[in-house]
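Hi Y.,

Following your request, here is the sequence exactly as I used it, all 511 residues.
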Amino acid sequence: MPFNAIFGWIIKKRIHQIELFRKHPVEVQKEWFERLILNGRRTEFGQKYNFGDIENYEDFQRNVPLQDYDDVKDWVTRAVNGETDILWPGETLWFAKSSGTTSDRSKFIPVTKDSLEDCHYKGGKDLLAIYYSHFPSTKLYKGKHLVVGGTAEQNTLRPDSYTGDLSSIILKNLPWWVEIKRIPSRETALMSEWEEKIEKLAEETMDEDVSSISGVPSWTLVLLNRILEKKGKKDIREVWPNLELLMHGGVSFKPYEKEFRKIIPHDDMHYIESYNASEGFFGIQDEIGGDLLLMLDYGVFFEFIPMSEYKGTKSEKVVGIKDVKVGENYAMVISTNGGLWRYIVGDTVRFTSVKPYRVIVSGRTKHYINVFGEELIVDNSDTAIKQACEQTNSLIKDYTACPVYMEEGKQGGHEWIVEFTKEPEDMAVFSKLLDKSLREVNSDYDAKRTSDLTLNFPVVHKARTNLFDDWLKSKNKLGGQHKVPRLSNDRSIVEDILKLKHSTVIDIKQS
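Below is the corresponding structure, written out as tokens. Let me know if you'd prefer a different format.
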């Protein structure tokens, strides 16, 4: 029987299960909560926090405090050293090196066999199932699947255990039916030197029949542009005529969408976003062009802290999924089959629907600017950057922003560093459009900008080529899922980047 026919049968079964948690989300979450607690009772963490006495969600909230990485670090270290039944029953062999932080301290997120199979792999299969359900005549499996993945490094404490980007852990444990269609070679896919790796990726893949790609948008673009350069082409379909799908995640697609559509200018090229972090696979774009469906049967129990009342692990108001509200910004809290309990992921989400539960990733709990009450979040800045680029026919590679503090006799403001792959003809016009768009998408920013009441017109630096790559490289974070923080509430990152050589500074007074 042809693979497409077999897969079609599997799809129908799984789509029915997805429809079940769409219709009965609270019941499905309750079922997973009970399963997680039963497993947690067999762990040292569960014994410490009296999981045996937990009968319902209210007991769970009373018994188990909110956790961040500092709280779980010692538990994780014990698991890394080979102790069993620490956070999850049995032995944990894999640890995802967190890509969500730019500090010099590494975070190692436990990845269990259960979380790998019932969360991460399930998410990948569901993404394909949803795609096939939208496009049943697709020939996706006839071509090769290009994975622009991360790096792996051996954990020297235990030869049978290893750490690395989540994508590398997934890559080294892929089922056979994925592995036979995946490119590049595992050796190339797991290379740690990204500049050399991009060249090898291009050489190994540009003559293959690629039908789908998965990766972080920024690095995927670097690879595609290098292939076009080597082939002397302008349209990636001239290289891969059967390419039809890009599965992306890790950062917002908004700033990169225009460039993808420039080098793949075809209406039958499809893009599906996923929300897959080191801690778990949380969401999939189940409608083409829509928001992310929260995946409720992956062994993850969700809680949410309203950002209006967020105080980190000291937060007092924490709600379950049945009590969230559309339009409100929340910090996400998870308990998982990877052994994380009431863990604050660090992402913020905003619900756009509760029937079913759909979200957008609005930013990070630490990545925002609110020095002057402007409450600027990453979703605002991504939208404004996208609009400014569209109106100036420019293309962006990366950006970051921070506050400019008030000084005696001077107003405060925001300072931006923007790196382009195609620069605007007039940076002053770009800066004005960026400011205008920010005012349109954020009423608090607009109020502070009115008559330069609190915020002056933004200072915008046009970065030299590869400035952000050089900064990431200086932090040993070049490549993979590592990314430059979009927004910071202090000046440390921007000042660190500006110590490297940069170019023009635009400081336009509002006309």
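The chain is about 35% helix and 20% strand.

Thanks again,
Q.
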